[in-house]
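Q: Convert this sequence to C-alpha cells.
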Amino acid sequence: MMKDINKKIEEQFASLNISLIYESKEQFYLYADYVELVCIISNNYVSSSDIVDRLTDNGLEFKLEKEKLDGQIGQIEAEIKDVEEGWISNIFEYLNERSSLFKKSYPFIVDNNGIKLINEKLSSQQRLYIYFLISSSLKFFHKLKHELISEFEIISEKALKAFLPQSIVHGFGANSAYKGSARAKIKELAKDINLAYKERIVNQVSKYNSKEEGLDVVGWIPFNDNNPNTIIILGQCACGQNWIGKQNETRRYDRFYDSYILPFIHALFVPHDLKNAKGKFNFDKDINNNTLVFERLRLIELLGDFKFDETFKSKLIVDKCLEYEEGLV
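A:
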C-alpha cells in the first residue's frame, strides 16, 4: 500500500504543472493559494513581479477600459503596468492578512514585495496548513485526489469531535464504520440517532448505491435519557472549487428522517481559506442559511493538538511538495 502511494506521488510530481488561470481575477483567495504553492515548489523567495510574470506568461490578461486604448502604445503599456501592480498588491495584502490570522500556524513570511517559507523546521500545524493548501488545489494534484479527499474526511471528523468533545462523531463517507448499501447506512444511522426514517423516501435511493448520499461526517450529543431532542450535525466535505454547490447535499437527510423538535445543523467542511482581515467570511452571499462552516482557519484552530504524521498518506504528499523544486517559468 505504501509502495503504491509513493509511486503515485512520484508520477504526480514528475508531471506537476502549476499554470492554471482562474475565471475571475477577483478570486483573491485562490490566487493567494497559487502564490503560496509557487513559493513552495520554487523553494525560494518569490517576488510579486515573479508572480505577475508567471501568470501573464500563462495567459492572464490585464485589460484596460475601452476609452484608454486610444492612447499611445507606451502610455497603454504604462497603464497596464499600473493595473498589474495594483492587482498583485491586493493579493499580497490578502496574504498579509492570512499571516495575521493564522499566526504560528502560517508557514510563510510575507512582505509587500514577496513571500518565502520560514527557515526553521515546520511544525505539525504548519504542515497541516500546507496539506489544506494542496487539498484546495486539486486541479494541480489530480493524481493524488483520492488520498487528499479521503483523508480530509478523516481530519474533518477529528475537527468536529474537537468542536463537540461530548459528542459521538462518525465518518459516513469512504472511511465510514457504516457498511453496506446507502439504504442500509441511512437506516443504521437512524437507529443510532434514535430517529424514525421515512421508508418511502429512503427506498427511492437505489439499492445498488453504496455511496453515502451526500453525508461525509455526522455528530450528535447524546443524553442519558436517549431522547432524540439533541444537537445533530450533518457534514459534507468539499475540497474542490465547487464547494458552494456542495452545501445542499446533506439537506436530503431532512427528507430521509423526521427530526425531533430541533432541526438538523448542516455543516460544510472545506480546506479553503474563506476569511477576511475582520474575521468574517468573504462569501456571505454564497453560504446557505443554517450552514455551519468549518474552513481552513477554524479547522487548524480546532486541530491544535492534532499530529499530522506518517499515519496519513497526505503527510508524504506534503513532504514531497516541500522537497520538490521547480524554477519559475
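The mean pLDDT is 87.
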